[in-house]
Amino acid sequence: MSRISLTPPRTLLMRIGEWYSRRTYGTVLDPGRAYGHNSKVLSSYVRLEQRAARWDALDPALKHLAVMATAARLNCSWCMDFGHWEGLRLGLEPEKISGVPRWREAGEAFSPLELLVMEYAEAMTETEPTVTDELAAELIARLGEPAFVELTAIVALENWRSRVNLAFGLTSQGFATSCALPSGR
Description:
Elements: H1 12-25, H2 30-35, H3 39-52, H4 60-74, H5 77-89, H6 94-99, H7 112-125, H8 133-143, H9 145-168, H10 175-178
Helix pairs in contact: 4-5, 4-7, 4-9, 7-8, 7-9, 8-9
């Protein structure tokens, strides 16, 4: 049960956000409803997400694995649920998406670079980040500085998302269930 009402004031911004959310995701996203209690915060957050969606220095699959590893480390069920759906939209294999919470044990399912990206996301997500010079140097060598900066920023953004969702008490909204493959496939 959420700690904040998911029935925000019916402002013009909320009505536009609800319309966009239904059109894009098939439902109104609970984080948007929660942010809707403060129009300035909602507006700023939406602009940040819109701009972040245009970042293109990092491979989208690597970016998504970093986001999922961050959400898994923080145990944000809303982000994991939405991330499963979004990963399928990006064309990631369902087994890979499902393997993110246990990426260390499912190592063979991931490339060495994917493993490094998830290790970095987890290290950065620790309450006191545990990123090592060696890990950062290896990622910079493999990705380049622009993509490394983007990786760092997207992990920080997912930390924001997950921590806000957890503080608000938001849980799974059913995205992963809605995209499950029919049995026999």
